């Protein structure tokens, strides 16, 4: 599993209806994308769920690098680049994935928590903790799914979870869910990924 996200920070007075309209038009284009586990079309609005900014920030869990690369280099990503400019794309290697008790429900919100690993920590222990946190999040009431991944270049762990209601039991940045494309969700490997 590979995780990926890019964020487009929008002006404070930006009409987020433009993003909502865009997702309504193009969101279904990845509903059958080969190699994609899930794409969560995410929006933060200034003042909603404590967000200090307006931000469009889709989050992806990929089953294959080929599917991810075809998305980035094969033309699909170019539409976003043409409309908003080329964002930095963060990528992480999968650590764990779990379906939650509300897996059959539509998600209302997502939570993303990014944390840098301090120097001097035992990597195996930190990664096992991330796996445990993924299991814990997935076991919380209202959890649709939970995942963890790591960027070994910057030594950053990302925890990502989807929730069926607007009061998630996870810490981090809270996003509104606009659409979920999940053509390969059933093929995402469960549990620890090594």
Would you spell out the secondary-structure blueprint of this structure?
Layout: E1 2-6, E2 8-10, H1 17-26, E3 36-44, E4 54-56, E5 59-62, H2 65-73, H3 78-84, E6 89-99, E7 109-116, H4 123-139, E8 143-151, E9 156-163, E10 173-181, E11 191-192
Antiparallel strand pairs: 1-5, 1-6, 2-4, 3-4, 3-5, 3-10, 6-8, 6-11, 7-9, 7-10, 8-9
Report the principal-axis shape.
Answer: globular
Radius of gyration: 16 Å
CATH class: Alpha Beta
According to DSSP, the number of beta strands is 11
Cross-sheet strand order for the largest sheet: 1-5-3-10-7-9-8-6
Overview of this protein structure:
This protein has helices spanning 17-26, 65-73, 78-84, 123-139, and strands at residues 2-6, 8-10, 36-44, 54-56, 59-62, 89-99, 109-116, 143-151, 156-163, 173-181, 191-192. It is α+β, with helices and mostly antiparallel strands and 194 residues long. It has a single domain, classed as Alpha-Beta Plaits (2-Layer Sandwich). The protein has an eight-stranded antiparallel β-barrel. Strand 8 and strand 9 (156-163) form a beta hairpin. The radius of gyration is 16 Å and the shape is globular. The termini are close together. The mean pLDDT is 97.
């Amino acid at each position: 599993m590979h995780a990926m996200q890019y964020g487009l920070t929008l002006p404070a007075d930006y009409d987020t209806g433009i993003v909502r309209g865009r997702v309504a038009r193009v969101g279904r284009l990845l509903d059958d994308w080969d190699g994609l586990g899930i794409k969560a079309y995410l929006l933060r609005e200034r003042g909603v769920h404590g967000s200090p900014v307006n931000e469009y920030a889709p989050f992806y869990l990929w089953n294959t690098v080929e599917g991810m690369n075809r998305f980035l280099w094969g033309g699909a990503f170019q539409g976003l680049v043409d409309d908003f400019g080329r964002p930095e794309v963060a990528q992480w290697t999968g650590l764990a994935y779990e379906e939650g008790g509300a897996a059959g429900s539509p998600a209302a919100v997502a939570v993303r928590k990014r944390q840098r690993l301090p120097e001097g920590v035992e990597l195996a222990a930190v990664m096992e903790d991330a796996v445990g946190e993924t299991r814990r999040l997935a076991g919380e009431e209202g959890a649709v799914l939970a995942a963890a991944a790591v960027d070994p270049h910057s030594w950053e762990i990302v925890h990502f979870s989807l929730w069926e209601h607007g009061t998630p039991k996870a810490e981090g940045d809270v996003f509104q869910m606009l659409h979920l494309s999940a053509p390969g969700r059933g093929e995402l490997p469960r549990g620890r990924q090594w």
